[in-house]
């Protein structure tokens, strides 16, 4: 593969139903650790889970409010414009066509990474991008055998070698562990609670944003 020197573009995909401070904090720290541009990439129809409670438009409105006031984390809504399941390999191929040899980094929480071998055309993901694994509380570092075999020769410890290639390496990013999940946030909101310090403060300025999660 050709050598590169440009600032990496990192993609952080998720259902974001809703986005929470766990997502934002690890994405922010990944941007710092990699000195990368980080885009949050909401999935339209997530391939492996029940449909989100909030519509795509509602999740985007929440994301926009959550990202307001900073410019390091941005929003990329391309998966919402495509029909059918949001397969990550298709998104990475689109981005590769746009970005040339720029290093692309697929950011995954440790739980999502452990399940990677069930993804559509999963081995091709390593040809399309680097993978940055974000530590997440309560998730073991053990991987299924097939995934461990694929990853073993790709692991790197320093970000410099990641900047030198467009794709193909795997790096663990030791971000501050925050035990926050969208599942817990949905439970709290459905119970009429206001998880003010688990969500970006701006979401409470407009009560309409959280209506999809109220019972
Ligand atoms: N607190 C967290 N720390 C590290 N990674 C996280 C955290 N929360 C979510 N992620 C990662 O963010 C990505 C998108 O996650 P997702 O939108 O499914 O959030 P979630 O909180 O896991 O949601 P749910 O509880 O609905 O499954 C995944 O790669 C997931 O591993
Ligand atoms: O491409 C796939 O087969 C695939 C399977 C499962 C999840 N993903 C992506 O992984 C990201 C996190 O998914 P989730 O379900 O944890 O929100 C999101 O961008 C999904 O589109 C992708």
TrEMBL record:
Swiss-Prot/TrEMBL keywords: ATP-binding, NAD, Nucleotide-binding, Nucleotidyltransferase, Pyridine nucleotide biosynthesis, Transferase
Documented EC number(s): 2.7.7.18
Keyword Transferase: yes
Catalytic activity from the UniProt record: nicotinate beta-D-ribonucleotide + ATP + H(+) = deamido-NAD(+) + diphosphate
Gene3D superfamilies to which the protein is assigned, alphabetical: HUPs
Keyword rRNA-binding tagged: no
Molecular-function annotations in GO: nicotinate-nucleotide adenylyltransferase activity
Pathway where this protein functions: Cofactor biosynthesis; NAD(+) biosynthesis; deamido-NAD(+) from nicotinate D-ribonucleotide: step 1/1
TM annotation in the entry: none
Domain of life: Bacteria
Cytidyltransferase-like domain residues: 11-187
Pfam families from the UniProt entry: CTP_transf_like
Entry-linked PANTHER family: NICOTINATE-NUCLEOTIDE ADENYLYLTRANSFERASE-RELATED (PTHR39321), PHOSPHOPANTETHEINE ADENYLYLTRANSFERASE (PTHR39321:SF3)
Family designation: Belongs to the NadD family.
Stored HAMAP family: NaMN_adenylyltr
Function recorded in the entry: Catalyzes the reversible adenylation of nicotinate mononucleotide (NaMN) to nicotinic acid adenine dinucleotide (NaAD).
Protein name, as recorded: Probable nicotinate-nucleotide adenylyltransferase
Lineage of source species: Bacteria, Pseudomonadati, Pseudomonadota, Gammaproteobacteria, Lysobacterales
